[in-house]
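Subject: design request, 139 residues
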């Protein structure tokens, strides 16, 4: 097992650039007038969800387990939809005028990343036996 370090570096670059863009869109969302906030939430969801998904997918492509691997297209698409949807929910929650709104948005965001990850991992197939450690999954 090893990783393609060039693809790992690309995943890191996607993550940093996408996070900066997503945070700028979040700032726009916070300062937008009521009618425009929905548009900023949509843009933030697409940018943030795409960043999360692309970072993880490029990192998965970098992984070289030593056996032939494949990705189910439908489940891979579901993982992208989960990432974008959860970002929309986290942006909407974080911009509400509640005392703990940013924390709520962050919790939704974290849960969304986790859900996207496991949806994407369910799309992963290998010409071998995949054994999951329940302890690692729970942690």
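Subject: RE: design request

Done. Sequence follows.
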């Amino acid at each position: 097992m090893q990783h393609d370090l060039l693809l790992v570096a690309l995943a890191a670059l996607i993550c940093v650039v996408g996070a900066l863009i997503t945070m700028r869109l979040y700032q726009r969302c916070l300062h937008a007038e009521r009618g425009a906030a929905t548009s900023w939430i949509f843009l933030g969801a697409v940018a943030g969800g795409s960043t999360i998904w692309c970072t993880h997918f490029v990192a998965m492509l970098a992984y070289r387990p030593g056996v032939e691997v494949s990705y189910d297209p439908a489940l891979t698409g579901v993982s992208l939809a989960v990432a974008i949807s959860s970002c929309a929910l986290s942006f909407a929650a974080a911009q509400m005028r509640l005392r703990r709104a940013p924390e709520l948005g962050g919790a939704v965001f974290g849960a969304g990343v986790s859900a996207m990850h496991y949806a994407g991992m369910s799309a992963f197939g290998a010409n071998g036996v995949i054994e999951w450690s329940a302890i690692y999954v729970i942690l």
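The first helix runs from residue 5 to 31.
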